[in-house]
Design brief:
2 copies of one chain form a homodimer. Chain A is an alpha/beta fold. Chain A contains 12 helices and 20 strands. An 8-stranded mixed beta sheet of chain A has the order 3-6-2-1-9-11-12-10, sandwiched between helices. A 4-stranded mixed beta sheet of chain A has the order 5-4-7-8. The radius of gyration of chain A is 23 Å and the shape is globular. In chain A, 49% of the residues are buried. Chains A, B: Catalyzes the phosphorylation of the beta-carboxyl group of aspartic acid with ATP to yield 4-phospho-L-aspartate, which is involved in the branched biosynthetic pathway leading to the biosynthesis of amino acids lysine, threonine, isoleucine and methionine.
Chain lengths: 423, 423
């Protein structure tokens, strides 16, 4: 019997009626002849409400206790979904992350899954039950403490369970129809894509596409697991995130998968750095020691007259001020002239595995931006991605221009709803 | 270092401010030189809200899933109390019932504690932490499923943990000042008692006094553990529930501990039963097989002329209709004449270990009722208790009359607030 793992996010579980609707879909999947293991997020606003409560008793709650508190959210939704399934005459068993064997490291708030030992899940599935598992949570290997997985945690739980159970597919249910060629709120002519290679999805997620979280895609890619991203509000096919098998599998794929954008970053430029070995290392060692993740780095060749150069990099806006402080603290040691900080930027990324065999993609991209009067502040590329940083207020125009230039606009321009997932 | 176990009910944890107040009290207890282990109920109305959610998705939710849902309530409150303690600069660790080693049988919804293995609690206390434990919940020995303990469950968790940890005292915090000689909402002159023997408390609880649940008192008595019932809203001493040591310990205790009352029962009279061996056995075998707990039983001698008798018994109102159905189903087999059902009754119980050595208590009780024109429908006695059933609308008068007749009225008649505990 095929085994299907499904994941439902908070927006699909907003209230009792939503839960009943999801239960009906789960029971239908079971009746169609599948074993079904379901991963659920917390209902609608539950997590925010719990965070508000925590904030009301303590401005800086201990992370262990915060994890204990937040995991109550999925516990509630998994029990309610199980009850709703029982009410339809089928039989469901709910399991916490710990009971489901989701073993993590011991970093509270953003634990990483290091093993999945789903003995109780396998047993319950074998006994004919539908299984409901709390997403976003696990138990730490060494300390046996309850942990949470951080952003995208429930998607990751679903993929990790699907891999451990050797499932046939992992269905990620959300409030949009699938993966789009661009955010339809910015590009009304964006199209849902039927399939996307997981390496492309990985670049899209890393570049700001919010429907699937990066770590979940990485996990699925590592275990060669197909993901079907689809809407819990319709029965339409969504987007399949697949693993190409051999070189020929991609032949008919479009050159470009989509245009992602990201407004979450800021830019720091270190002006007047000596162009001598070790300067960049010193800068980014200091940043890393501050616990700050950086994204793009650009360094130009130095002006011959001065022997000085400028180094620019992007980092999360939320870490922006700290990044500046870290560098100011070592200004004398590094001997740079000044720092420039800009959080009014946006990043556009063009992603497609066809870039490998199609030279000229970058040129087309830059021309499209130039034709629309959009200035490029930074450029960064990978094998299947080109990213540019623009002024924040030019980003939407940039995304539309590039989407059109690469022939991604749909002919009918149907209105679609596009949203982000929670966790 | 002395070890104190404290239990806080939902009314003491109604909102963020209440939680901060409770945290302050816990930290003060720790600073006074005690190890502190705290058991918490769910916040205020949380349990009712969760039950409403369950009801909205299923009219008859599976008990396993209901337990999974409800245990989220204590999980939230224990994490929040821990955070509030951390915010006061002290260190707290929260543990679920399962983590705290509360091992139960596998009856969902009303599990009984069969063992407590508090290894993680002892370890955390030894490391200098304050420990917060979720009340009302455990894990089943055989099936490793999450269970709840039913009514009075959090009090029982506290007493069981106190026994297993060999604590010096178990403090039960509630929203009243302690145990009263009668319900002050009915008897404004009722007094708080400073101490009460646990056998008396047991009879009071079994007779309808709601501040402490019967099973918690039974547990404390079995393990010879002192309980201090007190208000979380003041710093006054409450009521000590103690274990008399030897016969002399009770010498100075008052003859009467208090007057309890109970409106939760109904009465069934089986009219015209053959006065032959085995008739009563047949009646109560059928009731027991229906899963119905009965309280008082009264059978009069039969009229010589007919050889028939009447058998009356009381049972929870909630089981009343089912009790009638069970007996109607075996009417032909038993050969009784008819059934009378009355749910407009109340029960008054006078409790005191001094009754043993003071004959005449019953006579004084019956005289007080007679003087006030109150008719007695049933009488039942134990070694330290006399209970009478009256009409529901005469019960309050009866309680006041008896309270006065036994000299229990306070001289100052101070206004007190008296309420029930949740779970």
């Amino acid at each position: 019997m095929p085994l299907v793992v499904q994941k439902y996010g908070g927006s699909s579980l907003a209230d009792a009626d939503s839960i009943k609707r999801v239960a009906r879909r789960i029971v239908d999947t079971r009746k169609a002849g599948n074993q079904v293991c379901v991963v659920v997020s917390a209902m609608g606003d539950t997590t925010d409400e719990l965070l508000d409560l925590a904030d009301a008793v303590s401005p800086a709650p201990p992370e262990r206790e915060l994890d204990m508190l937040l995991t109550a959210g999925e516990r509630m939704s998994m029990a309610l979904v199980s009850m709703a399934i029982a009410n339809l005459g089928d039989s469901a068993r709910s399991f916490t992350g710990s009971q489901a064997g989701v073993i993590t490291d011991d970093v509270h708030g953003k634990a990483r899954i290091i093993d999945v030992t789903p003995g109780r899940i396998t047993e319950a599935l074998g006994a004919g039950h539908i299984v409901i598992v709390a997403g976003f949570q696990g138990v730490s290997q060494n300390t046996k403490e309850i942990t949470t997985l951080g952003r995208g945690g429930s998607d990751t739980t679903a993929v990790a369970l699907a891999a451990a159970l050797n499932a046939d597919v992992c269905e990620i249910y959300t409030d949009v129809d699938g993966i789009f060629t661009a955010d339809p709120r910015i590009v009304p002519t964006a199209r849902k894509v039927d399939r996307i290679a997981n390496e492309e999805m990985q670049e899209m997620a890393a570049s700001g596409a919010k429907v699937l979280m990066l770590r979940c895609v990485e996990y699925a890619r590592r275990f060669n697991l197909p993901i079907h991203v689809r809407s819990s509000f319709s029965h339409r096919e969504g987007t399949w995130v697949y693993q190409p098998q051999g070189e020929d599998d991609d032949v008919e794929a479009p050159i470009i998968a989509g245009v992602a954008h990201d407004r979450s970053e800021a830019k720091i430029t270190v002006v007047g750095v000596d162009d001598s070995p070790g300067q960049a290392a010193s800068i980014f060692k200091a940043i890393a020691e501050g616990g700050i993740n950086i994204d793009m780095i650009v360094q130009n060749v130095s002006a011959v007259s001065t022997g000085k150069t400028d180094v620019s990099f992007t980092l999360p806006k939320t870490d922006g001020q700290r990044g500046v402080q870290v560098l100011q603290a070592i200004k004398d040691q590094l001997g740079f002239e000044s720092l420039q900080y800009d959080d009014q930027i946006g990043k556009l990324s063009l992603v497609g595995s066809g870039m490998r065999s199609n030279p000229g993609v970058s040129a087309t991209l830059f021309q499209a931006l130039a034709d629309n009067g959009i200035n490029i502040e930074m450029i960064s590329t990978s094998e299947i991605r080109v990213s540019v940083v623009t002024k924040d207020d030019q980003l939407d125009d940039a995304v539309r221009a590039v989407h059109t230039a690469f022939g991604l606009d749909s002919s009918d321009g149907e209105a679609v709803v596009y949203g982000g997932t929670g966790r």
